[in-house]
Amino acid sequence: MNGHGPDGPHDRRFDDDDRPTGALRAAIEDWKAAAPPPLAELEQRILASLRAGAGRGRARVPRRLSPLLARRGVRWMAAAAAVLLAVLGLAELDVLPLGLHSRAITPRRILVADALRAAEQAEQQHAAAIAELERAAAPILAQAGDPGLPAAKAAQLLAYRDRLRALDSAIAEVKSILEQNPGHAGVRTVLLAAYMDKTQLLREVLALEKGARS
Amino acid sequence: MTDAPAPEVQDRLLSRCSAGEVGAFAEVYRLFGRGLFGTALRMLGNREEAEDAVHEAFLSFHRRAGSLPDVSLLPWLRRVVANECIDRIRRRARWQTSEIEESNLAAAPEAPAGLRIDLERAVLRLPAGARTVFVLHDVEGFRHEEVAQMLGITEGGSKSQLFRARELLRARLQERPEDAP
Fold first, then answer.
1. Is the pLDDT of residue A100 over 60?
2. Percent with pLDDT over 70 in chain A
3. Is the ipTM value over 0.90, yes or no?
4. How far is the C-alpha of B181 from the C-alpha of B179, rounded, in Å?
5. What is the model's pTM?
6. Which residues 23-52 on chain A approach chain B with CB closer than 8 angstroms?
7. Could you tell me the sign of the dihedral formed by the alpha carbons of A162, A91, B22, B74, in that order?
8. Contact B72/A at CB under 8 A
9. What interhelical angle do B7-18 and B73-95 show, nearest 10?
10. Which residues contact residue B51 at a Cβ distance below 8 angstroms, ignoring those fewer than 6 apart?
């Protein structure tokens, strides 16, 4: 390592004589020292993307979907689209079920048996938790059709119902790919992200009811 | 920026990354992620964009780890992050969507008092070119030669933008807060 190659920026900082001095330099150092950390999720997002092979041109794992869903109603479509895009990207590039390619899946990206079992167990736990949340949320979502419900509330419930349907559709697509390539770590990462987002959405629906009662 | 580990430690990490070991990338992130995020945040002034820039930089690192020339890991990563930020700043200008939002800093829970916030605000109010050169050179420590290469300008252009930035900053830091528009 010499740090002088065309891709290697100079490692010796502040070594020219045109550097800030005095109060400006002190303010800069203070500014740098007080830099906030990134969100903890960033590391998980980066590693999930790397495992999915995004660094080599495959689909990125999107920014966590739930904060987007919670913040802005219109973004749910982008979130669902991101999951679908990830699925389609993986299918297009090297997952075989669509019959587009005959390349073998590289061994590095195949989960070994133990990891696969662990991943399946984690997914089953998510699925069980989601089933329970769905049972609890069903009567709340069913109110969307109640003509006596205030319009704003009905619109809110309908929006949640649409978001959940979009996620269900994405999950079904991911699962159909996994049936043919159960060991594909990238697809499993996408499925897990979709499960987490569905869990979050259902919790938000339940929180609506709690808020209405209190 | 976090103190960098010894060069031989970075060498070993880079070798493991070159072999495609995801755990090695995780170690690189834990060592340098916060510092790289700081660089991106100072350049972009927006947390979400800064996180996206670091995300993209790591994907680029992953893509190229197996074929990197003889580089120093941390300076190389800093350069990748800086280039990613420059691309984003250029895209902003192209689409004229937004300038750096001052509200992003004002709303930050860590928002400090005193000189630092004055400097942050003053930097945000700089013209985009001067701001980028100032952050790259004076804050992140890149040399004029590197800044010029990254921005596609001459070294003289970099020096002149920096001079302009410092003059504006000095003037603004001397303003009383209530004088600021």
1. no
2. 61
3. no
4. 6
5. 0.55
6. 23-24, 26-28, 30-32, 34-39, 42-43, 45-47, 49-51
7. negative
8. yes
9. 70
10. A38, A39, A42, A63, B37, B40
What single letter denotes the amino acid at residue B56?
Answer: E
Taking CB atoms and an 8 Å limit, are B34 and A34 in contact across chains?
Answer: no
Nearest to A24 by CA among B116, B130, B40: B116
- Find how far residue A160's CA is from the centre of its chain: 18
CB contact under 8 A, B119 and A31: yes
**Contact yes or no for B10/B73 (Cβ under 8 A):** yes
What is the rounded distance in angstroms from the CA atom of residue B4 to the CA atom of residue B34? Answer: 12
3-state secondary structure of A200: helix
* Nearest residue of A to residue B108, measured between CA atoms: A36
Specify which residues A184 forms β-bridges with.
A110
CB-based contact A38 B51, cutoff 8 Å:
yes
What is the pLDDT at residue B46?
86
**A210–chain B Cβ distance below 8 A for any pair:** no
Say yes or no: B25 contacts chain A, CB-CB below 8 A. Answer: yes
pLDDT at A196: 84
pLDDT bin (cut points 50, 70, 90) of residue B45 is confident
Q: Mind telling me how many Å the CA of A51 is from chain B's nearest CA?
A: 7
- A88 closest CA partner among A103, A76, A100: A100
Structure-token match 């594909």, residue found: A184
Q: What is the mean pLDDT of the segment spanning A37-55?
A: 76
Longest dimension (CA), chain A: 74
Q: Is A163 in contact with A69 (CB distance < 8 Å)?
A: yes
